């Protein structure tokens, strides 16, 4: 057995292999949260099946003192709790690493590896001895391995104890069981194994002013702070928790203390066709309204997204992307709805897109989405993904400026209408190419007919080519005008960079880490993360400034690259795709390998 | 929709309603539907109903989907807010609009194609949500805009203009609405304005979802021998099972009917629906009996009309969602945003 000599502090990766539905998520979450509370940058990626129970599920924890927390592809320690995947899990331990297994049963000799250390803990046997009910015996095995990890990794037991108190303060018997299981695992590891391991944890202060939150929760919070009052949706993984969280926050913050009435209305629609219809109806009437969905929902919503585009009705559509096409793999992540969202619907349509890279941006971009939708009177699609949406991320504390007031765009008041000789919808336009709108019921002079059928710049039905084209041309100009209003790209230029990298959304953490790692090898890259569509001049400038650019994204068909080639003047050949689309989050290794192999190829 | 402006000549004897508007103020553009289209008669009845209710035009939201029927909102109450949406999607748009602003009077105009095929799901669910609106189906059994295909309301054996017989069983919006728990269900005939106008007024005043299925013959594609949605067939088989009057809240209610022959139901807004000449075995507030009655008579090829079912007590969408009395759109942002202090406190839970 090989033992690493060098002790690594706060820099390692674990993988926990479990069986879906056995209660492991709770134990794994506790581990991640405890590390976070020790002040150490950490990430947890839940790689779970689309299944209620029985199938393999994994949870990866990466600890990195420098703050690089994208997915790791190599594991220092694997906790193998699923017999079905045992062979695969053993193989994934890096040479010199460790594997923790349940030694209640003898280990299959054929799975042995000489270059790793097997750590046996009799989890089932211990739990069978401590607990009577079979349910508890199953559940508490997870807490028992957590106890062993506390000893092996030097997790602060005091922090963990405190967390259990918080979690089970109202369920004393459960608290007691958890404590017993935790202690049993801990004591066994301490007495029988070498603790701590040569990689382990030490308290630091890198997360003191940070929070641990998932993107869907942050998005929902953003919708509350933006002042959204009507939400309509149809359940779909991985977007469901957006609405669950929105409902929770509304119950907390939006109940009128005097009347007990709800200052919001959440409608669970019969399908996505209806959900987007409700959003359009509510926005037409002047409420800030949104829906949350995933790719298959976008497909169904596309018809009415086109109506909102042409009739110029604001709408906020949150797409928590998952693997596709068709129903795909509902619990796996991708960025494969970029094109379908950019041009959603029939005919000539183009939409504003926002690409948050973390829960932090989910919160702020949710607010931006409502402002942009109302300012430009058009649908705005916010493209998150499962990795951002359903995994917990360590982010800076969210900040709120109490001076914020919603940008409602050009909405005429009763007084303004009263003073007007006559109101015409869709004319005249301002510098954003947006015309003033009216809200139903505000003033008699504001009434007009909203129609998806051909209309001229006065809102009147038309089939005259010139009149129709005039409106369509303005819509195109309006879309262009939004380029300077969407969040600007984040560009990191370095002296002596020989090429550029472009990426978006949840790829960011992995790409930033890769750029740093490449620089250490003397391969210097500039990096631009696009955060919105339409693309602005800075995107054009970055494209023009580099002879060779890698575009990193999580889909098969290089959709961001396609959008860049269609919507900017860049030559297609300049953009070289690096694509990862198997359904698991991106790792810096993917980017490093993609860049180095292509550079070698290009230069060789 | 294509539209032609009506000449603005006012008859000197036009009587203003209580908000000072004449019936002309409730008209819209000239109809571009075929001369004699049943839909135009319904439009005229809607104009009369709104005029008599004296609704401020800009407080009316008139919405529709796609089809001949969905063109008609252009032809009434020009001063109302119109929304001509997509095929079969009007119910969801009304639901969202209503959620945002409950203070408007919502009328949705649809057809048998729009409501019973592509929009059947949305119709079913707007009923379940009990959205406060009047939903009018202009039912002619045929697709007029695409020149004569059978719709889902065409009766078995009913003949198309080309002579083909329909083989598929019809979807009856009245039975559907009853079974799904609609709280106001009526049927009428576009050629019976005397019946239709009070029904429209009652439907508009009803708190919750009111549906009126109006047989509205298509003179171009479905008014021939062999059609069961023609003028001739409908007139022959029409059967007024419930005669109902509508008395608005403001008017005095006089009881000049014999006891036993009239039932009065007070609606949420204080107006009253008075059922008279109700068939002896008919109780318009007992859904099971109504359903059995309709099945029996429709089985004989009859077309029972009138306000067939009414439940004025069930909670509507807003009550079910406990929304405030004022429209959500009127709640100031300051009340909606929890602010930075609440955010800071909340974030402690994410440590």
What does this structure look like?
The complex is a heterodimer of chains A (604) and B (351). Helix content of chain A is 39%, strand content 20%. In chain A, helix 18 links the parallel strand 22 (549-553) and strand 23. Chain A is α/β, with parallel strands linked by helices and 604 residues long. Chain A contains 19 helices and 23 strands. Chain B is of the alpha/beta class. In chain B, the strands form three sheets. In chain B, strands 2-1-3-4-8-7-13-9 form an eight-stranded mixed sheet, with helices on both faces. Chain B has a three-stranded antiparallel sheet with strand order 10-12-11. In chain B, helix 1 packs across helix 7 and helix 3 packs parallel to helix 5. Chain B is globular. The termini of chain B are far apart. The mean pLDDT of chain B is 92. At the A-B interface, strand 9, helix 7, strand 11, helix 9 and helix 10 of A face strand 2, helix 3, helix 5, helix 11 and helix 12 of B.
Q: Identify the overall geometry of chain B.
A: globular
In helices, the fraction of residues of chain B equals: 25-40%
Distance between the termini of chain A: 40 Å
Rounded to the nearest angstrom, the distance between the terminal CA atoms of chain B is 57 Å
Largest sheet of chain B: 8 strands, mixed
Multimerization status: heterodimer
Beta strand % of chain B: 15-25%
Tally of alpha and pi helices of chain B: 12
Task: Offer a concise description of the structure.
With about 600 residues, chain A is α/β, with parallel strands linked by helices.
What distinguishing features does this structure have?
heterodimer, A: 604 residues, alpha/beta, seven-stranded mixed beta sheet, six-stranded mixed beta sheet, 19 helices, 39% helix, B: 351 residues, eight-stranded mixed beta sheet, three-stranded antiparallel beta sheet, 19% strand, globular
